[in-house]
Amino acid sequence: MLYFKEMEHRTIIFVTGNEHKIREAEAILSPLGIILEQNDCGYPELQEDELESIAAFGAEWAATMLNREVMVDDSGLFIEALGGFPGPYSAYVFDRLGNERILKLMENEVNRKATFRCVIGYCCPGAKAQVFTGEVIGEIAKESRGNSGFGYDPVFEVDGVTFGEMGEDEKNRLSHRYRALVRLAEWLRVRH
Ligand code: ITT
Known about the structure:
Layout: H1 2-7, E1 10-15, H2 19-29, E2 34-39, H3 51-66, E3 70-79, E4 85-86, H4 90-96, H5 98-105, E5 113-123, E6 130-140, E7 156-158, E8 161-162, H6 168-174, H7 176-191
Parallel strand pairs: 1-2, 1-3
Antiparallel strand pairs: 3-4, 3-5, 5-6, 6-7, 7-8
Helix pairs in contact: 2-6, 2-7, 6-7
Inosine 5'-triphosphate is lined by residues 16-18, 21, 73-76, 90-91, 94, 149-153, 163, 175, 177.
């Protein structure tokens, strides 16, 4: 198929320290002909409210530093009843509080709506970063369920099923990360 042929042999450095993100992104992108190489050199994370500016800055920084075509993934869980918390602070909050404390904060809350967002920052050396956003709307579960996935997966549910209860394949067909990555792949297909 022409689509796959055009995408052959593209390798992007994925700058992340998170093995789960790599695994999911590989499963999503490899059928589209995009190969990923992990680099865990890290990047400075701006203290910003917008995942987009954090991802754009990180991608430009990493492209310059590594002198390679790179992508970064900045994700966050935005809980409506908590005013969008933890949002851009999701990594910090997960490390300090974890899922059980989040569930405690939500104990008597009727509005359980939450949005999981993923922003992929992509950059070539010397160019401006491009950002691709994907989001999925769901709810905070009443209790932690499922052993699949990572991070907030056991407490984030879509149509009554948590990401933790879904198999990897099912999560990768509808997740925030999937939605952002297919936008990246489509942009690369058209632009390059
Ligand atoms: P890098 O910055 O090194 O890529 P990280 O784990 O710090 O890795 P983020 O800041 O993007 O990544 O993640 C914010 C938090 O949200 C962190 O605790 C993740 O474990 C969690 N998270 C990100 N994507 C997730 C997903 O698909 N399912 C569940 N939790 C996720």
